[in-house]
Design brief:
The chain is an alpha+beta fold. It folds into two domains: 89 residues, Elongation Factor Tu (Ef-tu), domain 3; 139 residues, Threonyl-trna Synthetase, Chain A, domain 2 (Threonyl-tRNA Synthetase, Chain A, domain 2, 2-Layer Sandwich), CATH 3.30.980. The protein is built from four helices and 15 strands. The strands form four sheets. A six-stranded antiparallel beta sheet has the order 3-2-8-5-6-7, with no helix packed on it. The longest helix has 20 residues. The radius of gyration is 19 Å and the shape is globular. The chain starts with a strand and ends with a strand.
């Protein structure tokens, strides 16, 4: 399956051919829909059929293979036949919010350079959990640092390295509980120019200025070594 979102997260729709379709999920030969993973929710949207019908896609999930994406149809939808041509269209306003927040969380992991124990990307707010045994975190300072990096408008771009190159640079991996997928010979990195570089398969904005102003709204102790930092778009 061709994963268009990996190279162009701004692509909102694409022509595709149905490979298989069941009530549990629809597979296409190519897609702009991002599947749930890395703390980022799967895309929602529609499949527009040649006969004028529309199939609502309520979620997108990963299949058994690394390049397998399953589009989850809404209940009661008439399923397309294998070989049918469709136009896959994502809910762009929601996706763009997720892109902005996901990139913001990468900035947060640069401002707080500690191992990451968990995270979640939302369309209004997001969070990262850090392994910080003894530390006092200040919402105002973190907020100021995040907005400084946003205002500096650093370019954001994906790039790839080999499995062997990643093995030789283990410090690139910040997450303790989730490891980047290996076995296909290469791993996708997300680079924020001059700020951050780490494995990530998610969708992101092209420059940090696109994120907009943010604020740290909550810092919680979630265990002996776990500090949760919650970030929201300013005014959300």
């Amino acid at each position: 399956m061709e994963l268009i979102f990996q190279d162009d997260p701004y692509e909102r729709s694409c022509a595709a051919v149905v490979v298989s379709a069941t009530p549990e999920g629809i597979r296409l030969d190519r897609t702009v829909f991002y599947p749930t993973g890395g703390g980022q929710p799967g895309d929602r949207g529609v499949l527009k059929c040649e006969d004028g019908g529309t199939i609502e896609i309520v979620d997108t999930r990963k299949g058994a293979a690394l390049d397998d994406v399953v589009h989850i149809p809404g209940g009661g939808a008439a399923l397309p036949a294998p070989g049918a041509k469709v136009r896959a269209e994502i809910d762009w306003p929601r996706r763009h919010l997720l892109m902005r927040m996901h990139t913001c969380l990468h900035l947060l992991s640069a401002v707080l350079p500690y191992p990451v124990t968990g995270g979640q990307v939302g369309h209004e707010k997001g969070r990262l959990d850090f392994d910080i045994p003894e530390a006092t975190l200040e919402k105002e300072r973190i907020t100021a640092e995040l907005n400084r990096l946003v205002a500096e408008n650093h370019p954001v771009r994906p790039r790839w390295i080999t499995d062997d190159e990643l093995a030789a640079q283990p410090d690139l991996v910040r997450t303790m509980s989730v490891q980047p997928p290996r076995g296909q010979g290469r791993v996708r990195l997300l680079e924020i120019d001059g700020v951050d570089l780490q494995p990530c398969g998610g969708t992101h904005v092209a420059a940090t200025g696109e994120i907009g102003r943010v604020e740290v709204v909550k810092i919680e102790n979630k265990g002996r070594h776990n500090r949760r930092v919650v970030v929201a778009f300013a005014g959300a």
